[in-house]
Task: inverse folding
C-alpha cells in the first residue's frame, strides 16, 4: 500500500512550513529545514517509503543493510543523515527513521505506517 493521500497531504503541508521557516532561520535552523526538505522532496526516497509500507521483505532488507538498498536505488541522503528501521512493539509496526545532528540538535524524521511522517528536534 503506497503512502496514503492523507499522509501525502500532511507531508506537503509540513514541507511548506519548512520552506517558510527558511526565510527567518539562522544558519543552524536553516540546515535542519534544508535537510528535511531534501528528504521530503526526494521522489526516489518516497518510492522507497511506499515499498517499506507495502512489503515486510523490504522492511527486513532495510533493517539488515539499508545503505545497500539506498545505493541500489541510487538514493543519496543529505550529508550526515542516517536511516534505520526502528522496531515497534508487538502491536505497533516498524518505523523508518532518518536522523541527523546540527550543532546541539539531534533531528529525527520518522515515517510511521499508521500516522505518516513526523519530525522532531531534541537538544
Result:
Amino acid at each position: 500500500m503506497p503512502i496514503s493521500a492523507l499522509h501525502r497531504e500532511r507531508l506537503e503541508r509540513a514541507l511548506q512550513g519548512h520552506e517558510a521557516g527558511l526565510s527567518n532561520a539562522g544558519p543552524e535552523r536553516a540546515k535542519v529545514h534544508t535537510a528535511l526538505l531534501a528528504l521530503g522532496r526526494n521522489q526516489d526516497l518516497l518510492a522507497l517509503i511506499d515499498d517499506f509500507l507495502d512489503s515486510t521483505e523490504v522492511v527486513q532488507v532495510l533493517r539488515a543493510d539499508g545503505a545497500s538498498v539506498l545505493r541500489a536505488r541510487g538514493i543519496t541522503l543529505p550529508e550526515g543523515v542516517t536511516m534505520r528501521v526502528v522496531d515497534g512493539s508487538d502491536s505497533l509496526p516498524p518505523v523508518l527513521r532518518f536522523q541527523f545532528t546540527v550543532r546541539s540538535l539531534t533531528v529525527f524524521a520518522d515515517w510511521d505506517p499508521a500516522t505518516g511522517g513526523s519530525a522532531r528536534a531534541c537538544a
In short: The chain has a mean pLDDT of 95. The helical segments are 5-22, 27-41, 43-54, 56-73. The chain is about 50% helix and 25% strand. The beta strands are 82-86, 95-102, 105-112, 116-122.
